[in-house]
Amino acid sequence: MPRLSITAGLVAGLFAASSHAAPTAPDVTRHQAQIDKIVVEISPKRIDAYIRKLVSFETRHTMSDTTSDTTGIGAARRWIRSELERCGAGTSLQVSFDSHIAPVSARISRPTEIVNVVATLPGTQDASKDRLYVVTGHYDSRNTDVMDASGKAPGANDDASGTAAVMELACVMAKYKFDATLVFMAVAAEEQGLLGAGHWAKTAREKNLNVAGMFTNDIIGSSRADDGRVDNKQVRLFAQGVPATKEMSETVRQLVATGGENDSISRQLARHVKEQGERYVKGFKVNVIQRHDRYLRGGDHMPFLEQGYAALRFTEPNEDFSHQHQNLRTENGKVYGDLIEFVDVDYTAKVAKVNAAALASLALAPSAPQGVKVRTDKLVNDSTLVWQANPEPDVAGYRIVWRDTTAAGWQGAKFVGNVTEATINMSKDNYFFGVQAVDKDGNVSVASYPAPLR
Protein backbone atom coordinates (compact mmCIF):
# COMPACT_ATOMS: atom_id res chain seq x y z
CA MET A 1 0.00 0.00 0.00
CA PRO A 2 1.46 3.42 -0.91
CA ARG A 3 2.69 5.55 1.97
CA LEU A 4 0.70 8.75 2.60
CA SER A 5 1.36 11.88 4.62
CA ILE A 6 -1.45 14.37 5.21
CA THR A 7 -1.55 18.05 6.14
CA ALA A 8 -4.34 20.62 6.50
CA GLY A 9 -4.81 23.70 8.63
CA LEU A 10 -8.06 22.78 10.34
CA VAL A 11 -7.20 19.15 11.02
CA ALA A 12 -3.46 19.31 11.51
CA GLY A 13 -3.62 17.48 14.84
CA LEU A 14 -6.27 14.95 13.90
CA PHE A 15 -3.92 12.01 13.85
CA ALA A 16 -1.35 13.32 16.34
CA ALA A 17 -2.04 10.49 18.80
CA SER A 18 -0.77 7.96 16.32
CA SER A 19 1.42 8.96 13.39
CA HIS A 20 0.52 5.69 11.69
CA ALA A 21 -3.26 5.89 12.22
CA ALA A 22 -5.27 5.93 9.02
CA PRO A 23 -8.44 8.03 8.77
CA THR A 24 -11.66 6.03 8.87
CA ALA A 25 -13.13 5.86 5.39
CA PRO A 26 -16.86 5.69 4.64
CA ASP A 27 -17.87 2.52 2.83
CA VAL A 28 -17.84 3.59 -0.83
CA THR A 29 -18.55 0.10 -2.18
CA ARG A 30 -21.94 -0.57 -0.61
CA HIS A 31 -25.14 -0.05 -2.55
CA GLN A 32 -27.18 3.02 -1.68
CA ALA A 33 -30.71 1.84 -0.85
CA GLN A 34 -32.32 4.77 -2.65
CA ILE A 35 -30.47 4.02 -5.87
CA ASP A 36 -31.38 0.33 -5.68
CA LYS A 37 -35.06 1.29 -5.33
CA ILE A 38 -34.93 3.67 -8.29
CA VAL A 39 -33.25 1.10 -10.54
CA VAL A 40 -35.83 -1.55 -9.66
CA GLU A 41 -38.71 0.84 -10.40
CA ILE A 42 -37.65 1.51 -14.01
CA SER A 43 -40.39 -0.24 -16.01
CA PRO A 44 -40.04 -1.76 -19.51
CA LYS A 45 -43.84 -1.80 -19.71
CA ARG A 46 -44.13 1.95 -19.20
CA ILE A 47 -41.24 2.61 -21.59
CA ASP A 48 -43.02 0.51 -24.21
CA ALA A 49 -46.22 2.52 -23.72
CA TYR A 50 -44.34 5.82 -24.09
CA ILE A 51 -42.67 4.68 -27.32
CA ARG A 52 -45.96 3.45 -28.79
CA LYS A 53 -47.66 6.75 -28.00
CA LEU A 54 -44.85 8.74 -29.61
CA VAL A 55 -45.00 6.54 -32.72
CA SER A 56 -48.77 7.10 -32.91
CA PHE A 57 -48.24 10.75 -33.90
CA GLU A 58 -47.13 9.41 -37.34
CA THR A 59 -44.40 12.01 -37.71
CA ARG A 60 -42.62 14.24 -35.23
CA HIS A 61 -40.65 16.12 -37.84
CA THR A 62 -39.59 19.54 -36.56
CA MET A 63 -41.62 21.34 -39.26
CA SER A 64 -44.66 19.03 -39.09
CA ASP A 65 -48.16 20.01 -37.93
CA THR A 66 -48.33 21.86 -34.62
CA THR A 67 -52.11 22.34 -34.37
CA SER A 68 -53.49 18.79 -34.61
CA ASP A 69 -54.22 16.90 -31.42
CA THR A 70 -53.32 13.54 -32.97
CA THR A 71 -50.48 13.99 -35.47
CA GLY A 72 -47.31 16.01 -35.74
CA ILE A 73 -44.73 17.45 -33.42
CA GLY A 74 -47.12 19.85 -31.69
CA ALA A 75 -49.34 17.04 -30.44
CA ALA A 76 -46.25 15.07 -29.40
CA ARG A 77 -44.76 17.82 -27.26
CA ARG A 78 -48.08 18.66 -25.61
CA TRP A 79 -48.53 15.00 -24.73
CA ILE A 80 -44.98 14.71 -23.32
CA ARG A 81 -45.58 17.75 -21.14
CA SER A 82 -48.97 16.53 -19.92
CA GLU A 83 -47.57 13.10 -19.10
CA LEU A 84 -44.67 14.56 -17.12
CA GLU A 85 -47.08 16.85 -15.27
CA ARG A 86 -49.33 13.87 -14.50
CA CYS A 87 -46.60 11.62 -13.14
CA GLY A 88 -44.92 14.50 -11.30
CA ALA A 89 -48.08 15.60 -9.50
CA GLY A 90 -47.49 15.83 -5.77
CA THR A 91 -43.71 15.95 -6.20
CA SER A 92 -41.25 18.81 -6.68
CA LEU A 93 -40.99 18.16 -10.43
CA GLN A 94 -41.40 21.39 -12.40
CA VAL A 95 -42.44 20.98 -16.06
CA SER A 96 -42.26 23.71 -18.71
CA PHE A 97 -41.64 24.47 -22.37
CA ASP A 98 -38.36 26.04 -23.48
CA SER A 99 -38.82 27.55 -26.93
CA HIS A 100 -37.18 29.76 -29.48
CA ILE A 101 -37.65 30.59 -33.16
CA ALA A 102 -35.10 29.02 -35.49
CA PRO A 103 -34.44 31.10 -38.62
CA VAL A 104 -34.22 29.67 -42.12
CA SER A 105 -31.13 27.50 -42.50
CA ALA A 106 -29.88 24.44 -44.37
CA ARG A 107 -32.46 22.17 -42.69
CA ILE A 108 -35.11 24.75 -41.73
CA SER A 109 -37.14 25.99 -44.73
CA ARG A 110 -39.16 28.58 -42.78
CA PRO A 111 -38.86 30.26 -39.38
CA THR A 112 -39.89 27.51 -36.97
CA GLU A 113 -40.63 27.37 -33.27
CA ILE A 114 -38.34 24.85 -31.59
CA VAL A 115 -39.75 23.59 -28.29
CA ASN A 116 -37.98 21.56 -25.63
CA VAL A 117 -40.01 19.93 -22.85
CA VAL A 118 -38.09 20.46 -19.61
CA ALA A 119 -38.79 18.75 -16.27
CA THR A 120 -36.65 20.02 -13.39
CA LEU A 121 -36.29 18.28 -10.03
CA PRO A 122 -34.71 20.86 -7.70
CA GLY A 123 -31.93 19.77 -5.39
CA THR A 124 -32.53 19.93 -1.65
CA GLN A 125 -29.06 20.75 -0.28
CA ASP A 126 -28.20 24.45 -0.22
CA ALA A 127 -24.57 23.80 -1.13
CA SER A 128 -25.54 21.55 -4.08
CA LYS A 129 -28.87 22.75 -5.49
CA ASP A 130 -27.21 25.00 -8.08
CA ARG A 131 -25.27 22.02 -9.46
CA LEU A 132 -27.19 20.53 -12.39
CA TYR A 133 -27.17 17.16 -14.13
CA VAL A 134 -29.02 17.08 -17.44
CA VAL A 135 -30.35 14.04 -19.32
CA THR A 136 -31.98 14.25 -22.76
CA GLY A 137 -33.59 12.33 -25.58
CA HIS A 138 -34.80 14.00 -28.79
CA TYR A 139 -38.47 13.61 -29.63
CA ASP A 140 -38.35 14.80 -33.24
CA SER A 141 -38.14 12.25 -36.06
CA ARG A 142 -37.33 12.06 -39.77
CA ASN A 143 -37.43 9.74 -42.75
CA THR A 144 -35.10 9.51 -45.75
CA ASP A 145 -35.60 13.14 -46.80
CA VAL A 146 -34.63 15.30 -43.83
CA MET A 147 -36.91 18.06 -45.18
CA ASP A 148 -40.00 15.83 -45.50
CA ALA A 149 -42.32 17.26 -42.86
CA SER A 150 -45.45 15.32 -43.81
CA GLY A 151 -44.36 11.76 -44.67
CA LYS A 152 -44.60 9.12 -41.98
CA ALA A 153 -41.59 9.01 -39.69
CA PRO A 154 -42.39 6.86 -36.63
CA GLY A 155 -38.91 7.25 -35.11
CA ALA A 156 -39.43 4.39 -32.67
CA ASN A 157 -35.74 3.89 -32.00
CA ASP A 158 -34.44 7.27 -33.19
CA ASP A 159 -35.36 8.65 -30.83
CA ALA A 160 -38.62 7.69 -29.16
CA SER A 161 -36.51 5.16 -27.26
CA GLY A 162 -34.35 7.88 -25.71
CA THR A 163 -37.31 10.17 -25.08
CA ALA A 164 -39.24 7.36 -23.38
CA ALA A 165 -36.22 6.56 -21.20
CA VAL A 166 -35.94 10.19 -20.11
CA MET A 167 -39.65 10.35 -19.34
CA GLU A 168 -39.40 7.18 -17.26
CA LEU A 169 -36.40 8.56 -15.41
CA ALA A 170 -38.24 11.78 -14.59
CA CYS A 171 -41.37 9.99 -13.40
CA VAL A 172 -39.50 7.53 -11.19
CA MET A 173 -36.88 9.88 -9.77
CA ALA A 174 -39.36 12.69 -9.04
CA LYS A 175 -40.49 10.71 -5.98
CA TYR A 176 -37.04 10.97 -4.38
CA LYS A 177 -34.84 13.71 -2.93
CA PHE A 178 -31.36 14.57 -4.18
CA ASP A 179 -28.74 17.08 -3.08
CA ALA A 180 -28.17 18.42 -6.61
CA THR A 181 -30.72 19.37 -9.27
CA LEU A 182 -31.77 17.00 -12.05
CA VAL A 183 -33.03 18.26 -15.42
CA PHE A 184 -34.90 15.84 -17.70
CA MET A 185 -35.41 17.10 -21.25
CA ALA A 186 -37.17 15.96 -24.38
CA VAL A 187 -35.38 18.14 -26.91
CA ALA A 188 -36.49 19.07 -30.41
CA ALA A 189 -34.85 19.53 -33.82
CA GLU A 190 -31.93 17.18 -33.31
CA GLU A 191 -32.38 15.95 -36.85
CA GLN A 192 -32.40 19.53 -38.18
CA GLY A 193 -29.07 20.44 -36.59
CA LEU A 194 -29.15 19.92 -32.80
CA LEU A 195 -31.20 23.10 -32.48
CA GLY A 196 -33.17 22.40 -29.29
CA ALA A 197 -30.20 21.18 -27.29
CA GLY A 198 -28.03 23.90 -28.77
CA HIS A 199 -30.39 26.64 -27.62
CA TRP A 200 -30.63 25.25 -24.07
CA ALA A 201 -26.87 24.74 -23.73
CA LYS A 202 -26.08 28.22 -25.05
CA THR A 203 -28.61 29.77 -22.68
CA ALA A 204 -27.18 27.77 -19.79
CA ARG A 205 -23.71 29.14 -20.49
CA GLU A 206 -25.02 32.69 -20.81
CA LYS A 207 -26.71 32.28 -17.42
CA ASN A 208 -23.50 30.74 -16.02
CA LEU A 209 -25.39 27.64 -14.93
CA ASN A 210 -23.30 24.97 -13.23
CA VAL A 211 -24.08 22.01 -15.49
CA ALA A 212 -21.79 19.42 -13.90
CA GLY A 213 -22.71 16.67 -16.36
CA MET A 214 -25.00 15.88 -19.29
CA PHE A 215 -26.10 12.62 -20.94
CA THR A 216 -27.99 12.24 -24.18
CA ASN A 217 -29.82 8.99 -24.95
CA ASP A 218 -30.05 8.66 -28.71
CA ILE A 219 -30.83 5.33 -30.43
CA ILE A 220 -31.01 3.09 -27.37
CA GLY A 221 -33.88 0.91 -28.55
CA SER A 222 -32.42 -2.10 -30.32
CA SER A 223 -30.20 -4.97 -29.27
CA ARG A 224 -30.13 -6.51 -32.76
CA ALA A 225 -27.45 -5.68 -35.33
CA ASP A 226 -28.04 -5.52 -39.09
CA ASP A 227 -26.58 -9.03 -39.46
CA GLY A 228 -29.00 -10.48 -36.88
CA ARG A 229 -26.60 -10.64 -33.94
CA VAL A 230 -28.23 -9.85 -30.60
CA ASP A 231 -26.21 -7.98 -27.99
CA ASN A 232 -28.37 -6.95 -25.07
CA LYS A 233 -25.64 -6.87 -22.44
CA GLN A 234 -23.87 -3.59 -23.17
CA VAL A 235 -24.33 0.02 -24.24
CA ARG A 236 -21.86 2.37 -25.87
CA LEU A 237 -20.98 5.53 -23.95
CA PHE A 238 -19.18 8.11 -26.08
CA ALA A 239 -16.82 10.44 -24.22
CA GLN A 240 -14.74 13.26 -25.68
CA GLY A 241 -11.07 13.67 -24.85
CA VAL A 242 -9.36 16.77 -26.22
CA PRO A 243 -11.79 18.87 -28.31
CA ALA A 244 -11.04 19.45 -31.99
CA THR A 245 -10.72 23.23 -31.86
CA LYS A 246 -8.46 25.59 -33.77
CA GLU A 247 -7.05 27.01 -30.56
CA MET A 248 -6.61 25.34 -27.17
CA SER A 249 -7.99 26.77 -23.97
CA GLU A 250 -5.53 26.96 -21.09
CA THR A 251 -7.27 24.00 -19.44
CA VAL A 252 -6.86 21.84 -22.53
CA ARG A 253 -3.29 23.04 -22.98
CA GLN A 254 -2.43 21.82 -19.48
CA LEU A 255 -4.04 18.45 -20.21
CA VAL A 256 -1.93 18.01 -23.31
CA ALA A 257 1.23 19.29 -21.63
CA THR A 258 0.91 16.74 -18.82
CA GLY A 259 -0.24 13.80 -20.95
CA GLY A 260 -3.78 14.05 -19.62
CA GLU A 261 -5.65 13.79 -22.91
CA ASN A 262 -7.66 10.95 -21.37
CA ASP A 263 -8.55 13.01 -18.29
CA SER A 264 -10.92 15.58 -19.74
CA ILE A 265 -14.01 16.38 -17.69
CA SER A 266 -16.11 14.20 -20.01
CA ARG A 267 -13.77 11.22 -19.63
CA GLN A 268 -13.86 11.66 -15.85
CA LEU A 269 -17.64 11.71 -15.97
CA ALA A 270 -17.64 8.59 -18.15
CA ARG A 271 -15.51 6.70 -15.61
CA HIS A 272 -18.04 7.54 -12.93
CA VAL A 273 -21.01 6.51 -15.10
CA LYS A 274 -19.35 3.20 -15.99
CA GLU A 275 -18.54 2.38 -12.36
CA GLN A 276 -21.98 3.24 -11.01
CA GLY A 277 -23.92 1.81 -13.94
CA GLU A 278 -22.18 -1.54 -13.76
CA ARG A 279 -22.49 -1.60 -9.96
CA TYR A 280 -26.26 -1.26 -9.97
CA VAL A 281 -27.17 -3.03 -13.25
CA LYS A 282 -25.55 -6.42 -12.86
CA GLY A 283 -24.37 -8.26 -15.96
CA PHE A 284 -24.59 -5.14 -18.11
CA LYS A 285 -21.49 -3.42 -19.51
CA VAL A 286 -21.02 0.29 -20.05
CA ASN A 287 -18.56 0.33 -22.94
CA VAL A 288 -16.78 3.69 -22.89
CA ILE A 289 -15.84 4.71 -26.43
CA GLN A 290 -13.07 7.27 -26.41
CA ARG A 291 -14.59 9.48 -29.08
CA HIS A 292 -17.06 12.33 -28.77
CA ASP A 293 -19.52 10.33 -30.94
CA ARG A 294 -19.62 7.73 -33.69
CA TYR A 295 -17.06 8.34 -36.44
CA LEU A 296 -17.59 11.90 -37.78
CA ARG A 297 -21.19 11.93 -36.51
CA GLY A 298 -22.89 13.87 -33.74
CA GLY A 299 -25.75 14.27 -31.28
CA ASP A 300 -27.32 16.54 -28.69
CA HIS A 301 -24.38 16.30 -26.30
CA MET A 302 -22.19 18.20 -28.75
CA PRO A 303 -23.64 21.67 -28.07
CA PHE A 304 -22.95 21.06 -24.38
CA LEU A 305 -19.36 20.08 -25.19
CA GLU A 306 -19.01 23.25 -27.25
CA GLN A 307 -20.10 25.28 -24.23
CA GLY A 308 -17.41 23.63 -22.09
CA TYR A 309 -19.64 21.20 -20.19
CA ALA A 310 -18.94 17.52 -19.55
CA ALA A 311 -21.31 15.61 -21.84
CA LEU A 312 -21.76 11.98 -22.95
CA ARG A 313 -23.83 9.97 -25.44
CA PHE A 314 -25.53 6.62 -24.83
CA THR A 315 -26.16 4.53 -27.97
CA GLU A 316 -26.93 0.85 -28.60
CA PRO A 317 -23.92 -1.36 -29.51
CA ASN A 318 -24.83 -2.00 -33.17
CA GLU A 319 -27.02 0.27 -35.27
CA ASP A 320 -29.22 -1.19 -38.03
CA PHE A 321 -29.36 1.51 -40.69
CA SER A 322 -32.29 -0.08 -42.51
CA HIS A 323 -34.35 0.98 -39.50
CA GLN A 324 -32.94 4.48 -39.21
CA HIS A 325 -33.73 7.55 -41.36
CA GLN A 326 -35.71 5.41 -43.82
CA ASN A 327 -39.04 5.81 -45.60
CA LEU A 328 -41.45 3.03 -44.63
CA ARG A 329 -41.37 0.35 -47.32
CA THR A 330 -40.70 -3.30 -48.11
CA GLU A 331 -38.13 -4.21 -50.77
CA ASN A 332 -37.34 -7.80 -51.73
CA GLY A 333 -39.03 -8.99 -48.58
CA LYS A 334 -37.01 -6.69 -46.32
CA VAL A 335 -38.85 -4.16 -44.17
CA TYR A 336 -37.36 -0.68 -43.94
CA GLY A 337 -38.27 2.01 -41.43
CA ASP A 338 -37.94 2.91 -37.78
CA LEU A 339 -40.85 0.82 -36.51
CA ILE A 340 -41.85 -0.22 -33.00
CA GLU A 341 -41.51 -3.90 -33.95
CA PHE A 342 -37.73 -3.48 -34.09
CA VAL A 343 -37.45 -2.04 -30.57
CA ASP A 344 -36.34 -4.20 -27.62
CA VAL A 345 -37.91 -2.42 -24.64
CA ASP A 346 -36.20 -4.69 -22.12
CA TYR A 347 -32.88 -3.51 -23.53
CA THR A 348 -33.99 0.13 -23.46
CA ALA A 349 -34.98 -0.31 -19.82
CA LYS A 350 -31.49 -1.59 -18.97
CA VAL A 351 -29.95 1.53 -20.51
CA ALA A 352 -32.45 3.65 -18.57
CA LYS A 353 -31.41 1.85 -15.37
CA VAL A 354 -27.76 2.72 -16.05
CA ASN A 355 -28.80 6.35 -16.53
CA ALA A 356 -30.77 6.24 -13.30
CA ALA A 357 -27.92 4.80 -11.26
CA ALA A 358 -25.45 7.30 -12.66
CA LEU A 359 -27.72 10.33 -12.25
CA ALA A 360 -28.73 9.38 -8.72
CA SER A 361 -25.15 8.73 -7.62
CA LEU A 362 -24.02 12.05 -9.07
CA ALA A 363 -26.86 14.02 -7.51
CA LEU A 364 -26.37 12.43 -4.08
CA ALA A 365 -22.58 12.84 -4.07
CA PRO A 366 -20.48 15.96 -3.42
CA SER A 367 -19.21 18.03 -6.32
CA ALA A 368 -15.86 17.23 -7.89
CA PRO A 369 -13.09 18.95 -5.89
CA GLN A 370 -11.90 22.28 -7.25
CA GLY A 371 -8.41 23.73 -7.49
CA VAL A 372 -6.76 20.31 -7.62
CA LYS A 373 -3.04 20.59 -8.28
CA VAL A 374 0.11 18.52 -8.00
CA ARG A 375 3.25 20.16 -6.60
CA THR A 376 6.09 20.37 -9.12
CA ASP A 377 8.46 22.77 -7.34
CA LYS A 378 10.84 19.98 -6.23
CA LEU A 379 12.36 17.00 -8.00
CA VAL A 380 11.07 14.16 -5.80
CA ASN A 381 9.59 10.73 -6.44
CA ASP A 382 6.67 11.31 -4.06
CA SER A 383 3.61 13.15 -5.37
CA THR A 384 1.89 15.85 -3.32
CA LEU A 385 -1.62 16.90 -4.30
CA VAL A 386 -3.52 19.93 -2.97
CA TRP A 387 -7.13 21.03 -3.46
CA GLN A 388 -9.81 23.34 -2.13
CA ALA A 389 -12.22 22.17 0.55
CA ASN A 390 -15.66 21.24 -0.78
CA PRO A 391 -18.65 23.39 0.29
CA GLU A 392 -21.03 20.53 1.14
CA PRO A 393 -21.64 20.12 4.89
CA ASP A 394 -21.70 16.30 4.76
CA VAL A 395 -18.28 15.78 3.20
CA ALA A 396 -16.36 13.15 5.19
CA GLY A 397 -13.09 13.52 3.32
CA TYR A 398 -11.26 12.89 0.08
CA ARG A 399 -9.80 10.03 -1.93
CA ILE A 400 -6.75 10.03 -4.12
CA VAL A 401 -7.21 7.70 -7.09
CA TRP A 402 -4.59 6.55 -9.57
CA ARG A 403 -3.98 4.42 -12.62
CA ASP A 404 -1.15 3.45 -14.94
CA THR A 405 -0.63 5.80 -17.86
CA THR A 406 -1.92 3.10 -20.23
CA ALA A 407 -5.04 2.25 -18.20
CA ALA A 408 -8.51 3.55 -19.05
CA GLY A 409 -10.01 3.37 -15.55
CA TRP A 410 -8.85 3.99 -12.00
CA GLN A 411 -6.88 1.08 -10.57
CA GLY A 412 -6.26 2.18 -6.99
CA ALA A 413 -7.67 4.53 -4.37
CA LYS A 414 -6.78 5.77 -0.89
CA PHE A 415 -9.00 7.71 1.50
CA VAL A 416 -6.86 10.47 3.02
CA GLY A 417 -9.33 12.08 5.42
CA ASN A 418 -10.91 15.52 5.56
CA VAL A 419 -7.81 17.37 4.45
CA THR A 420 -6.73 19.58 1.56
CA GLU A 421 -3.26 18.18 0.93
CA ALA A 422 -1.77 14.70 0.83
CA THR A 423 1.47 13.09 -0.29
CA ILE A 424 1.67 9.61 -1.81
CA ASN A 425 4.87 7.70 -2.54
CA MET A 426 4.05 7.18 -6.19
CA SER A 427 5.68 9.22 -8.92
CA LYS A 428 3.62 11.64 -10.98
CA ASP A 429 5.93 10.60 -13.83
CA ASN A 430 4.50 7.08 -13.84
CA TYR A 431 0.83 7.43 -12.86
CA PHE A 432 -2.21 9.57 -13.46
CA PHE A 433 -3.91 10.88 -10.32
CA GLY A 434 -7.31 12.26 -9.43
CA VAL A 435 -9.00 13.57 -6.29
CA GLN A 436 -12.57 12.69 -5.29
CA ALA A 437 -14.78 14.02 -2.50
CA VAL A 438 -16.62 11.47 -0.33
CA ASP A 439 -19.64 12.18 1.85
CA LYS A 440 -20.57 10.51 5.13
CA ASP A 441 -22.89 8.04 3.37
CA GLY A 442 -20.11 6.86 1.04
CA ASN A 443 -21.26 8.77 -2.06
CA VAL A 444 -18.22 9.60 -4.20
CA SER A 445 -17.78 12.52 -6.56
CA VAL A 446 -16.37 12.50 -10.04
CA ALA A 447 -12.57 12.72 -9.96
CA SER A 448 -10.69 15.93 -10.68
CA TYR A 449 -7.41 15.85 -12.60
CA PRO A 450 -4.58 17.84 -11.04
CA ALA A 451 -2.99 20.77 -12.84
CA PRO A 452 0.70 21.47 -12.18
CA LEU A 453 1.49 23.72 -9.21
CA ARG A 454 4.84 25.35 -9.83
Secondary structure blueprint with pairings:
Blueprint: E1 4-6, H1 33-41, H2 44-55, H3 72-88, E2 94-102, E3 112-121, E4 131-138, H4 156-173, E5 181-187, H5 195-206, E6 210-217, E7 234-239, H6 250-257, H7 265-280, E8 285-289, H8 302-306, E9 311-315, E10 329-331, E11 334-336, H9 345-364, E12 373-375, E13 383-386, E14 395-404, E15 412-417, E16 421-424, E17 431-439, E18 451-453
Parallel strand pairs: 4-5, 4-6, 6-9, 7-8, 12-18
Antiparallel strand pairs: 1-16, 2-3, 3-5, 7-9, 10-11, 12-13, 13-16, 14-15, 14-17
Can you characterise this structure?
The chain is α/β, with parallel strands linked by helices and 454 residues long. Helices cover 26% and strands 23% of the residues. The chain has 9 helices and 18 strands. The strands form 4 sheets. Strands 2-3-5-4-6-9-7-8 form an 8-stranded mixed sheet, with helices on both faces. A 5-stranded mixed sheet has the order 1-16-13-12-18, with no helix packed on it. It has a 3-stranded antiparallel sheet with strand order 15-14-17, with no helix packed on it. A hairpin with a 2-residue loop joins β10 and β11. The two termini are 28 Å apart. 49% of the residues are buried.
